[in-house]
């Protein structure tokens, strides 16, 4: 072996030693701050325990809380993550001091397109600008229009249920079809038929995207961020999940061209009443505005795409869990039916205004979102500088994670937390809750932008279904559900089958 080889080998060894030491040192952040938590491994942090131990992440978080208390730190790969549960601290982070220190969610490790141009990926000023534009999509007048689109799709749902009376219905599959149709039409200018056809190419592509979102490549990049660039290339080019993104992007790009050409067509009336009031149009109108930095076509496509991602799984999960809880609690279902009977005559339509006046329906939906908050690992903020959290001085770049599942099932906040009691949300009881004790949509300036949309769809669908059908459990319906968290949303481990009896 020549001297050059020996020198090269020595230099490589020193370099590797230096890298190993830096990595080890990185995993000492919480120990140095005196914050307890599960011991991380130098290769994967705590990600293997969280995601690959065979347990649901919800169980792992429960066990960590039991062992380390309400404030503890863990490492999502290399990302230091501080869990806080004190509700006043939660309020400080999400609401009171949000704009000073906690305005962004954590930086995505794999910076793939179109994610980085969406509300979920954007940061600081650009996020704020696009957020204020996209929030306009959910103004009362637009929601009134959107409710008509929703009602059209819900009519297909009730038609399917009429054809399947007294048979076992896979409720998650059913509501995924409904959510997909509604969002496609409202956000992507796309008509699909995925309620009647559960094998619709687009619905299958969306499911596949979500099933494979946390694939081994991404897992690897989270643990070894140096490879994120290579992983990004692989995911963008070859992942099966790219199919859904491609369909969406192509469709929205075509729709943009069409809308722009129609905008100059003298046969089309320019009045806003004649414009399609969807997300796409809101963005196209904003792109013409001289008051904001130009919105690029990439941003328009990306943010239409993120509405599908943000709204599909969440709303269908919420509808599934609400139906399940109503089937298992016939007395609550009866009270809801009576509220609907009293509010509407036989053939009267349920619309945007009337559905929002139903007090007990609101209680049912709030309680269902408490027991089963669809999104459980996404209420996270990144510290933008060294800052105080409780009595701790937390460095820049730490993710602060709000454990919504544990908050929603804390027996001190919610006695008998797994029992379905809509009375917890009666107007008198509601006043007694801490404002951070119920946060299925997060809180503060970065909360769920689609909250009104999601709630409207859930309420319209549940009201119309309960008016026409009695929901009953099938013989195999479990009374205690096991849940999975494939990405950030909970889904039942096994399909939930219910029967719909005609009233
Ligand atoms: C039951 C239905 C839904 C639930 C439970 C839900 C829940 C959430 C939660 C917990 C967050 C994070 C909030 C935070 O960090 O404080 C979020 C963010 C978001 N949601 Fe929803 N969501 C629902 C429906 C929707 C719908 C229908 C859309 C779109 C049409 C949507 C689009 C988004 C977007 C774009 C964000 C990121 C907002 C930002 O960073 O500015 N969501 N959602």
From TrEMBL:
GO terms for biological process: fatty acid metabolic process. PROSITE patterns: CYTOCHROME_P450. Belongs to the cytochrome P450 family. The keyword Transport does not apply. Pfam families: p450 (PF00067). InterPro entries: Cyt_P450 (IPR001128), Cyt_P450_CS (IPR017972), Cytochrome_P450_3A (IPR050705). Residues 1-22 form the signal peptide. GO terms for molecular function: heme binding; iron ion binding; lyase activity; oxidoreductase activity, acting on paired donors, with incorporation or reduction of molecular oxygen; steroid hydroxylase activity. It is found in: Endoplasmic reticulum membrane; Microsome membrane. The chain crosses the membrane at residues 217-235. The keyword Cell membrane does not apply. CDD domains: CYP3A-like. Its cofactor is heme. GO terms for cellular component: endoplasmic reticulum membrane. This is Cytochrome P450. It comes from the Eukaryota. It is a peripheral membrane protein. Its main location: endoplasmic reticulum. Keywords: Endoplasmic reticulum, Fatty acid metabolism, Heme, Iron, Lipid metabolism, Lyase, Membrane, Metal-binding, Microsome, Monooxygenase, Oxidoreductase, Signal, Transmembrane, Transmembrane helix.
